[in-house]
Amino acid sequence: MAEIKKRGSKWQYRIFYNDPQSGKQRSVSKSGFAAKPAAIAAAREVEVNMSHGAALALLDVTFADYFDQWIKDTKLGHYSRGTENRYKATGRLIREHFPGERLRDVNRREYTAFILNYGKTHARESVKKVNSYVRGMIRDAMAEHVMYSDFTLNIKNTGQPGKDVAEKYLDETQLTALLTETKKHMHYPAVTPYEILIGALTGARYEEVAALTWDRVNWDTSEVTLDRAYDYAKTKQFKPMKNQYSPRTIRINSVALNALKELRIQQNKFYLKHQVRDDVGLVFRGLNGDVPTNTAANKFLVAYERAAGISSKEQITFHGLRHTHASYLISHGANIGYVSKRLGHKNIAVTMEVYSHLLQGAQQSEETKAMQLLDGIV
After folding, report:
1. DSSP 153-216
2. What is the largest CA-CA distance in the chain?
3. Mapping DSSP to helix (H, G, I), strand (E, B) and coil, where does residue 9 land?
4. Ranges for the Core-binding (CB) domain (predicted)?
5. At 238, phi and psi to the nearest 5?
6. Other C-beta atoms lying within 10 Å of the C-beta of residue 207
7. Calpha distance 211→217 (Å, rounded)
8. DSSP H/E element including 322
9. pLDDT tens for residues 272-287?
10. Does the model's pTM come out above 0.70?
11. φ, ψ for residue 227 (rounded to 5)?
């Protein structure tokens, strides 16, 4: 039974319950009601929710605390370090903008203002990620009966226009010039040039390239297996890939295969001469015993782009090699389903969204072909 009291000019309710985890009696309360009937109605709603399985211990949990616990329970250890860091950053953002506020007290108007304010200084894609993370948490909170409505629903995706994928890849002439320049520097113990070549010819993420080991290279079938990532910055250990759809085995062309063969020959000679033993068999282990960082790879990449005559405005990062790879294949008529699997995307829809600018051009080309075929009927 709820306890209803007047505090000053306002009314409050307090409901006592036994915590099933600690066995102790606890209470949940809320004040600020202008009239006693309003406090009674709110208390009855909580009691009804309690009878339906609501966890009363969570009714007073703050937005920030619930989000932090949610990512610990459901996200950490299941995604790449980069993705986990974005979840943690969102948690810090929530704590900063909703200090001490209970999750069940956050309303749509307040959350909309938060998203609009965040969008003033951040890219649209960043705003989209934050909102999707919070929405995922809200769904779990609703399942626990902590909340009964989703204040993220139909929130407009605001934010500043980010750099379009169309601006993040090299065209065919630039790619050829870059690879020609890169090949000039492919002499072990320098491994970064080999990484750049393999990145451009596989479309793999940098952490996937860094994780490649010799036992993942199939010389007979000209395939490489990408089934883990590498934490080159901190632990120097393998780690899970970006998501469950990332692991894949892909074919590589003769240029990539021959580059790997040459690298292994030179690496083996160096290891034999200097009595180096590598039980892990990292393909791109450098002279200092470590795999280069993404930052180091990007420095070399920019230098090669500059030498290849690519202007600073058109230069890309290592991740841009992934977009270049996909864009090259799509623009030359490669099946979108094949490209999607080669990149390790969740599904074709993801690939189509990222590379819509190229697919539009391909559709126009196909329409022209279709009309020519139809014109030939009669």
Report:
1. TT-----BPPPPGGGSS--HHHHHHHHHHHHTT--TT--HHHHHHHHHHH---HHHHHT-BGGG
2. 90
3. coil
4. 61-142
5. -70, 155
6. 24
7. 12
8. helix 318-331
9. 999 999 999 999 998 8
10. no
11. -130, 15
